[in-house]
Amino acid sequence: MSSSYVDWDFAKTTGRTLVAAGPSVTADEAAAEVGAIRAAARRAHGPVAETSRLQTPDDAPEALVVDRPTWIAMNADSMGAMLNPAFDQIVSQRGGAPSGVGAAIGGKVTGAEAGALLAFMSSKVLGQYDLAPGGTPALLLVAPNLLQVQRELDVAPEDFRAWVCMHEETHRVQFTAVPWLRDHMINGARQLATDLAPDPERVQELTKRITEKLPEIFSSGSGGITDLVTTPEQREKLAELTAVMSLLEGHADVVMDDVGPAHIPTVAEIRAKFTERRKGAGAIDKVLRRLLGLEAKMRQYKDGAAFVRGVQERVGVEGFNAIWTSPETLPKPLEITDPAAWVTRVHG
C-alpha cells in the first residue's frame, strides 16, 4: 500500500502543529482581508487574459482564500495524489511493500518530514495554482501571508493584493488555456519521483555522500541535496521539468508586471521592495532554501522571466504563445538562458 510509505494524515497533523502563527488581526479585520483578496482575484482575470492573449473558459471557479493550516491540508492531499502512484510503481518494481509495525512507523516518520516541510512552506507561499491530481484544480491565495508581506513591505494594500492576484491568475490561465499542460506536469513529476527513489543498497552510500558533502550543500549556488543523490541522467530529467517551471513562473512575473502600470499605480514600488525582500531573507530561511535547492531554483525563475522577455522581443506575444502548442515546443533547459535558440528551433 502507498500509505506504508507516507502517512499523509500524520503529515497534516504535524504541519498544523508546527505551523507558525499568522499576523495579529481581529475577526472583523480577517473577514475584510479575505473579502478584499477574493475581489482582487475576480478583477485579475480580464487583464491577465488580455495581456497574455490566452483563451480560457468563462466558467472558472472563484479563487479559494485560505489560511495556513488549510493550505497544508490541501497540499498534503495533492502530494499524496501525485506521489502515491509513483510509490506503487516503486513497490511493484521491488517485489512488494513493507508490512506490519515497521511499515506504520516508516509512514509516520516520512509523514512527519512531509508535514514539517509543508509547515515551513505554508508561511512563505502567497498563492498557488493547485494541480490537484485526481481532483479539481484550484487557485489558492493564502490570506495571512499576503497580509504579513504587505505589512512588512509597507506598500498599498489594495495594490499589493492586485499584484499578487495577477501573478497567480496567470498560472490559472496557463493551465486552463492549455489543457494538456496539467497532465504533462503531473506525469513528469510522478516519473521523476519514481526515478529518484534510491534502491535499498544505495541508501547507505547516499547517506555517506551527504555527510561528507554537507558543507557544499549549504554553499551559495548549490542545488541542494538533489545534486548529491542524483545521477547525470536524473539531473537531466530534473532540468527538463525545472525548465518548464521556470517558464511558468517567468511568464507569470512578466504578465503581472505588464498588467501592473494600467491597473496598479504603485507597481514599480511593490516590485522593487519585493525583490529586495527576497535578497534579505533571514539566516534560517537561507539555510533551508539552500538545503532544498530552492535558492538555485529562484535564480532559474528569474531566468524564466528573461527568457519570456527575450522571446517576446523577437517574435511578439503571439509568437511567444507558440510555446503552448505541445510538449515539444516547451523550452529545453539550455534554451531558458538562450531565447534566440528557442525562437530558431520553433519559428525557424
How does this structure look, described?
This protein has 348 residues and is mainly alpha-helical. It has one domain. The chain is built from 15 helices and three strands. Strands 1-3-2 form a three-stranded mixed beta sheet, sandwiched between helices. Helix 1 packs antiparallel against helix 3 and helix 3 crosses helix 7. It is globular, with a radius of gyration of 21 Å.
Question: What distinguishing features does this structure have?
Answer:
single chain, 348 residues, mainly alpha, 3-stranded mixed sheet, 15 helices, globular
Number of domains: 1
Q: What spatial form do the alpha-carbon principal axes imply?
A: globular
Order of helices and strands: HHEHHEEHHHHHHHHHHH
Question: How confident is the prediction overall: mean pLDDT?
Answer: 82
Q: End-to-end distance, in Å? A: 49 Å
Percent strand: under 5%
Detail the topology: elements first, then pairings:
Blueprint: H1 8-18, H2 27-52, E1 64-66, H3 68-94, H4 100-122, E2 127-130, E3 138-142, H5 143-153, H6 157-177, H7 179-196, H8 200-212, H9 214-217, H10 226-229, H11 232-263, H12 267-279, H13 283-292, H14 294-320, H15 339-347
Parallel strand pairs: 1-3
Antiparallel strand pairs: 2-3
Protein name: Coenzyme F420 biosynthesis-associated protein
Pfam families: Zincin_2 (PF10103)
